Amino acid sequence: IAPAHTFGTSQTTEYLVQDYNGNSAGNGYVQVGTITGAANNPVYTTGTTLGVNQPWSETSVSATQQGNSNGIEDGDTRMGNAVYINSSLWFCNTAFLPAASPTHTGINWWQINPSALTVTQFGRLEDTNGPKFYYYPSIAVNNNGDVLLGHCVSGPANYSSAAYSFHAATDAANTMQSIYIYKAGTAGYYQTLGGGRNRWGDYTGAAVDPSDNSFWGFG
Predict the structure, then answer these.
(1) How far apart are CA 97 and CA 5, in angstroms?
(2) 55: preceding bond cis by omega (within 30 degrees)
(3) Sequence-distant (≥ 6) Cβ neighbours of residue 104 within 8 angstroms
(4) Neighbours of 104 (CB within 10 A)
(5) Predicted confidence (pLDDT) per residue in 110-126, tens digit
(6) Are 76 and 59 within 8 A, CB to CB?
């Protein structure tokens, strides 16, 4: 369960979000819960499910990489993180695609109105041809409504790399601009540390600089 990084001094509800069911009758669902009440007497509410007609699988598929036949463990479908700002709840998660029989990974990103439990924006970062894998997402949103989606990317022509995608508040709804790789990988990766899992990173990070509303990314 991901608690929302909440901006604003007057907000009295803490929202929490989690992946609920990626593929139920052709829809993908998340669950939005709350914590309310005084700090010394908090009330947790499990919440309500909210879905979109773009399902995903919960079955993981390892990411491919350049120059190495070993797959990279690219996590699961839990939320990368969540942000509450300007009355909207934003969050992101890895999606294994297609839902019926996954062959690659993409990233879902959401903007919802948590009070009305309606979806304001839903976007998916995906290479539908399958060669590129996107995973370990993180999201940051500034006061203007601009969005930075941090993530990793790899594939047959890419070492695992640190990248981001950007959505300006003035861009068309549900869209991201072109992916930018800000630190390209330099070699194939295989490191199991004595186990059977070739883990890479487990997370990225994205944050707003309070001095000028710009973004910082960590990958």
Answers:
(1) 28
(2) no
(3) 61, 96, 97, 126, 127, 130, 131, 132, 133
(4) 23
(5) 999 999 999 999 999 99
(6) no
pLDDT digit string, tens, across residues 38-86? 989 999 999 999 999 999 999 999 999 998 999 999 999 999 999 999 9
The encoded tokens of residue 8 equal 């604003």
Measured torsion, CA atoms of residues 24, 50, 174, 65, in degrees rounded to the nearest 10: -50
Let me know: does 32 contact 48? Beta carbons within 8 Å.
yes
| Three state DSSP letters for the chain | CEEEEECCCCCCCEEEEEEEEEEECCEEEEEEEEEECCCCCCEEEEEEEEEECCCCECCCCCEEECCEEEEEECCCCCEEEEEEECCEEEEEEEEEECCCCCCEEEEEEEEEECCCCEEEEEEEECCCCCCCEEEEEEEEECCCCCEEEEEEEEECCEEEEEEEEEECCCCCCCCCCCCEEEECCCCCCCCCCCCCCCECCCCCEEEECCCCCCEEEEC
> Residue 202's pLDDT band (boundaries 50, 70, 90)?
confident
Rounded distance between C-alpha atoms, residue 158 and residue 215, angstroms:
25
